[in-house]
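NUDIX domain-containing protein
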Amino acid sequence: MKHRIAAGVIVEHEGRILMVRHCKPDGYDFWVAPGGGVIDDEPLADAARREVKEECGLSVEIGRLAYIEEFANPATRECKFWFIGALQGGEIDCGADEAAREHIVEAAWLSRDDFAGKTVFPPMLRDEYWRDREQNFAEPRYAGLRRMAFY
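Structure:
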């Protein structure tokens, strides 16, 4: 089994969260906060920042660590570190080659209500995130291990 370390960032701006849509015909269709695998000895925060740029063209500031999540499929076990981020600038653009390779077809700012009827990752964005932000993410929280539904 392959092991992978990844970093992602939850960027909230004007009550909405930056999300990217991965859509592969006859495969999957889900929304996720931007993030991905760490390259070589890249620091986690740098990886999260790079992934936002690659997946949706925006520049963000990386803040505190909010969640540590593990997930697995038959071939890969992944540990992902989710940071809280702040928008620094740019325009949404998911036309980069890296985004196309990952079947990213759209990026958007979604409200909590917009999540209804969508498959959303990390799962904490549905409920826990909104409670945790009221406490200013007092400490990083381990979100547990989940089996991947799409891979």
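Residues 2-131 form a domain with the Nucleoside Triphosphate Pyrophosphohydrolase fold (CATH 3.90.79.10).
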